[in-house]
Amino acid sequence: MIMSIRQFQAQRMHAPRDFQSISSEPVCVEIGAGKGKHALLFTQTNPNSKLIAIERTREKFLAMQKQHALEGQPNLQTVHADALPWIVHALYPAQVEQFFILYPNPEPHNPAQRWLNMPFFEFLLSRLETGGTITLASNIPEYIEEAEQQVQNLWKLPFVKEVIGQDSARTHFEIKYLERGELCQQLIISKPEGYTTRFDEFQPLQGQNASSAE
User: Do 147 and 116 touch, CB atoms closer than 8 A?
Assistant: First the structure.
C-alpha cells in the first residue's frame, strides 16, 4: 500500500515505565480498557484467547486490576501504560488477532488525535494478522462517519458498520449511552490478504530507547 499520510516515527517511542516484554504468541488487545468490564467479560467467554488490556489512567487501571484479582481469568493480562509506546515496544508484526477500541476519547478539538487520522494507525495495522479485525465503537455519529471515510479513502480496508444493540453492556460508557437512548455504532475493520504497511518488518523495541539502542 502507498500511504498518503506521513510516516509514524516508531523508533522514537520511549519505553513505558516498568516495561515488560511479552512472548510472540497470538493475542487480542484492548486499548483504553477502562475499569476492565469488557476485558473481563471477553476473557471469561473466550477462554482460549489471550487478551492484553491497556489502560493509561491509574485510577481506572487499579479498578480493573482489583476486579481481575477477584475473577482470576488466567488469559487476561492488564497493563498500566500509554498504548502507543507500549504497542511499539511490545507487539510483534502480525501478532494480534483482534484490537478493541471501545468508546475512545472523540477528541472534539483535536481531529489529528482521532484513531483513524493518526499516522500511528498504520503501525497498528502492521501488528494485526491477516484476517484480523479492529473494532471501533462510538456514541458519536460524526466520529463513526469520519472514521468510515478514512477506512475507505485513506486506509482502503474492508469493514462492516453495525448499530450496537440496546442490550449490549460491554463497557460502563456503553451502558450509560444506551440507557440515555443514544445511537451507539461500531466499525469492524478487517485486514485482507496481501495488505502491506511500511512497518511489516519492524520488530518490537523491547524496552530499548533510541539513545541507548544506538
Answer: yes
